[in-house]
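Give me structure tokens for this 169-residue protein.
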Amino acid sequence: MTDAREVPLVTGPRRMALLSFDDAAELPESAGYEDVPTGYVLVVLWHEGRVLMVYERERACWELPGGGIEPQESPRAAAVRELREETGQWVDEAELRFVGHTRTAIGEARTVLGGAVFTAELRRPRPFTANDEVSAMHWRSGSEPLPGAGLVQTVDEYIVELCREKPAH
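Here you go.
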């Protein structure tokens, strides 16, 4: 397990640092970290070779869809809920493939949070409607520039590449 003072795998805007990534073969979905609870989820959603990125209003940053896990909610259920709330896209829990666990340091205090990363392939995207949290979404190919202004969360880009290296087949 990684200490928050160790060198991160990658850093990003808004004082975010990815401290570790343990893939599903190393740390199963049901395990998680012993010292840091799994408090958030990320969804790497694919459609025709492109990954879904959302523009998060408050952070003014392009990122992966995801968010906090509610009390009594499983990470898998949180991934489905967050994806639907942020983007209007629907996937069934069974369609999600668990990719791995993350440890992320956030903010000035470098608070360490545990996360669960899921991926899925979407056959038919639904239309997007802006909401209080997300003002835009974009199906991104590779590292193409994203529309409009705003930062891109490089921590999430790093996670996308880790998922790209682990095909769902």
